[in-house]
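Example 5.3 — Short transient receptor potential channel 4-associated protein
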Amino acid sequence: MATPLGLDAPCLRGKLRKCSSNIVTKFTASKITGRGFSRGTQLPAGLLQESDKHNKWYGIPVLLQKLYESSHPNSDLLQAHSFLKILSSRLSFEAMTCVTEDRKTAQESTFPNMYTFDLFGGVDLLVEILMRPTLTMQKKTPKMNEDLVKDCLSVLYNCGICIEGVTKSLAARDDFVLFLFTLMTNKKTFLQTATLIEDILGVKKEMIPLEGIPNLSGLVQSFDQQQLANFCRILSVTISEPDAGNDDKHTLLAKNAHQKKTASPSRAEINQVTLLNIPGFIERLCKLATRKWLDNALVLDALMQMATEETEQSSTESSDESSLATSPLRHRLPQSMKIVHEIMYKVEVLYVLCVLLMGRQRNQVHKMLAEFRLIPGLNNLFDKLIWRKFTSSNHVVHGQNENCDCSPEISFKIQFLRLLQSFSDHHENKYLLLNSQELNELSAISMKANIPEVEALVNTDRSLVCDGKKGLLTRLLAVMKREPPDSSFRFWQARAVESFLRGATSYADQMFLLKRGLLEHILFCIIDSGCTSRDVLQSYFDLLGELMKFNIDAFKRFNKYVNTPEKFQAFLTQINSSLVDSNMLVRCIVLSLDRFESQTEDVKVVEVLSECSLLSYMARVENRLSFLFRLINIINVQTLTQENVSCLNTSLVILMLARRKAKLPFYLNALREKEYAEKYPGCMLNNFHNLLRFWQHHYLNKDKDSTCLENSSCIPFSYWKETVSVLLGLDRTSLCAIVRYIDEPFEDLDRDLLED
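Solution (predicted structure tokens):
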């Protein structure tokens, strides 16, 4: 009779080694296929213990089995927590390594304990433990130990950052994602929960529905100010349209096709409405954004210096903790850290407000932001927190150069400028950026010019405008003029000021800014500062166009600054270097010239027309034609984006003004002659024909707001539509139809381009 072999028998040890190898293979396969073994609890404890010796699993599969057995419903979770603590200690070193080391991808050999934990079902087990209270049949949901919850969340987070795919697998479980929000009601588990949710939402393919979060309104109302600011980091992912940051780079053809396939309203838009329906939500965000914090504002730029000095002390005097305890740095650092945290919180809050301002509920948001005095509150913070004067030391923050967009203060300033841009853009509430004295100044400008005040100015509620000696716009102008040439803020500052001018042109608004030297500052930046950034130059061209449009005083000031042929040539060189960047300014000059030429009874207008080099240059038809040729040639339907579609509209403005003067046939014939001169007959006109067909398809869409085109040009949109229709006419005998100027052998109109 054969005697049973013990576990130490040589032949059985060989079988176990093979068996343990099969265990790993089977578990790995189950991760891929979803079939077979999925966790260590499905295997005998003895087998796991013996296999552990050969595989160096450090007891993790056995501990997971014990954790599973001690975490059943109605079991003593204190024992389960003790097993989890042991597991956590064996994983924590790898998590620290993962955070501190610069790795491109996680490898099994780098984090063996983490991989073993996940391989044997540790991640799934922790999810089960966390969600177990939701599965009870009891009327009152049992409360789990807070420390157990915190440890579960921490281990899940660490697994996610160390092992590729873990966070994605958690994100695929909608029930778990929504459940995590319920854990945020507990202040002790809030931070761990928020951190894990943020990571999960960052990789989740589908945007979560905020209305699916249990008692969202009560949850948000239970948050203190710091929690609400942290929660804004999560909200930013749920209310922003995907790829919004690259919006200018996507072709309009692709965007239009996407909009056809996408349900309207989008998930992000629905989530925005959900947030706006939470009582007191916007009011609390306004308070967070504008609350004063350390009004004496310890120098943020000294933060890195203090941290460095303290690190040096700790390395040289590590054995003498008493010296650190009595160090003045010990007392100064927490206050400096507080201001950093305050800035970081405000960045998140301003971002959420900015997204809501750009959404479909814009008018509702505007009304609330005005009512809760967001703009006056930001004005009061401007000098003390938003744009503090730097000390001569100018120390960097968190190892980043001060002009790096990564530092908290840089991010805060940029987000502040983006908010101002969104707030002012085409909205009557823009006058809240001024104080009462500045509003009176606008009224006086209108009275002196004998023109009626803008209705939005008359309707502005004076109790909601800025306080103090200067309004927010005036403060922004002051720092804008002091900004160094290579500053990353110049682009955003120009965009924020330009948004104040956008919409229907206001002479008083322009004069308000002209009196503060804005035009001379812009011309200095374009001509004399040596600026080479295309983004900054584009923002200054756009701002200059809005500032000068239809304003004879602005053209007079221009001529006074650009007072030599060399300066004028330098200005033209900048314009011609990239028409995509400068075409809005070209449009402004063309439109202004057209209006001034109809005001020859005004002595000042006649004087400026005769003296201004810029107007004289654009008055020459060959120069207008040169701009037209290039504007049409640098774009086609396949490459049109939100950024360069303005080139198409500027070319249309030139032709609409020509049509008004019955010169449209002359311009179209000039295009034809240009084609033949360059030996590409039909090329330019075929391209322009297709562009105009796209224009109809794009701008005549029922969802498209055409008021921007009308307001910016002072040309009724009906005339835009009519001119395009005339140009696209099929009658070859029509002098104003493009098709007349394309010889039939060269006709190549892409009829199917816009289909589908």
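Remark. Confidence is low (pLDDT under 50) at residues 1-20, 294-333, 391-404.
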